[in-house]
Write a structure and sequence with these properties.
Blueprint: H1 6-33, H2 40-50, H3 53-78, H4 86-99, H5 107-114, H6 122-150, H7 154-173, H8 184-193, H9 196-223, H10 230-245, H11 254-268, H12 273-300
Helix pairs in contact: 1-12, 3-4, 3-6, 3-9, 4-5, 4-12, 5-6, 6-7, 6-9, 6-10, 9-10, 9-12, 10-11, 11-12
Amino acid sequence: MISISHKAKQFLIVVTKLLIVSGAFYFIYHQLANNDKLDWDQFHAFFKKNQSISGIIFILFLSFLNRFFEILKWQNLVSYLHKISLPEATKQVLGSLTAGIFTPNGIGEYAGKALFFEKIKIKKIVFLNLICNGIQLIITVLFGTIGLWILGYRFWVLLLLIAFFGFWVLGFGLKKIKIKDHSLEKLIQKINQIPKKIHRKNMFLGFLRYIVFSHQYYFLLLAFDVDLPYLTMMSSIATVYFLASSLPSFQFLDFAVKGSVAVYFFGILGVNEWIVVFISTLMWLLNVVLPVLLGSYYVLNFKVKATR
């Protein structure tokens, strides 16, 4: 077995950190510099006309709340294994977000969080992260389905409900079938091992997070003078997030995926394409890029546990 010296190992760790951070910054810059749909002169003119310090602070505060509720979710779930402080939960969430920005559907985030724990806990951490992301997806699907119904896409909602019922029946019938010692029944047992108090808090925080980022999108639409009924806008936002979450993507392409879906649905409502593209980009900058910039600090200062 090849042995790696301590100095060589430290060098590899430093190189890996720099590659992760450099890659994150490169992808962010590349997406902003090469998006021909972004007319920054038009945005600057609009911003100058409608600038509001209090409005900017409010939108930034919503971005803070969005990530803060995610940090609280993670702190709550990890308490199943052992309690961690809020600063430690912040480090793990932001650091793993940076590590996962250029991986499909944020898969790197799972590995990123696992690195903060002993090797013996890796499987449990990956499982808890699945629960953390899973509840957010369920909430997104639920509100998205309601949004589709309100917007009049009731045939598609019925198809979704039939598909869900079909998968539920199929899953119930196959729950005892094992694949490499894994089964649906075993997964349900593992989920039930987590105290209900933790599950309830996870759902509540996930709901609060959804309310925050969906309304941040809504307030940005208002800031760009989009004049539509509240229920119509919120239903469209819910539909956009639902459909975008169903598509395979990378974190650094998140705004492009959500933007393309949003352009279609808001285009039907008569909203100008450049406004929708800019709002999708701003949501990405505020809720992905800013946390990634902060997370870069934690990545660069990451230290491998000696007990690993």
